[in-house]
C-alpha cells in the first residue's frame, strides 16, 4: 500500500494575509527608520547639544519664564493667551521643548532663542511645572 502525499495549496486568503503581513513589516521598518533618523538629526543640532549638556537652574528658569513667557502663559504657567504649560514635560521631550521655544512655528508664539544656559534654565523650570 502506498501513501500519496498531497501538498495543500494555500488558500487565496492565506496568500493575501501573508502579503499584508509583509507590507506591514516594511511599513513598520520605514516608520521606525524615520523616527530614529529624526531623533539623530535633532540630536545633531549643536544648540540642542549645548543646552542638554548644561545643568539648569529652576530659579533662573522661573525668572526667564516670567520675563519672556508669562505674558501669554500666565505667571503660574496655567495659560492665558498661550496654553497651560503645567505638566508639559509629561508629553514633550526636552528636545521637543527646546524646539518649541526656539522655532516660532506655533503662532502667535514668537521665535525665542535664548543663549544655551538660559535655555537650560528655562527647560529646568518647565520640567518642574
Write a brief structural summary.
The protein has 129 residues and is mainly alpha-helical. It has helices spanning 12-43, 46-53, 58-68, 70-73, 94-103, 116-127.
Polypeptide structure, described:
The structure is a single chain. This protein has 129 residues and is mostly helical. Helix content is 60%, strand content 0%. It contains 6 helices and no strands. It has helices at 12-43, 46-53, 58-68, 70-73, 94-103, 116-127. The longest helix is centred in the N-terminal third of the chain and has 32 residues, at 12-43. The chain starts with 11 loop residues before the first helix and ends with a helix.
Q: Helical proportion?
A: 55-70%
Average pLDDT number: 88
- The strand count comes to 0
Stated plainly, the CATH topology of the largest domain is called: Cytochrome Bc1 Complex, Chain D, domain 2
CATH homologous superfamily (4th level) name of the largest domain: Cytochrome c-like domain
Separate helix tally: 6
**What is the CATH class of the largest domain?**
Mainly Alpha
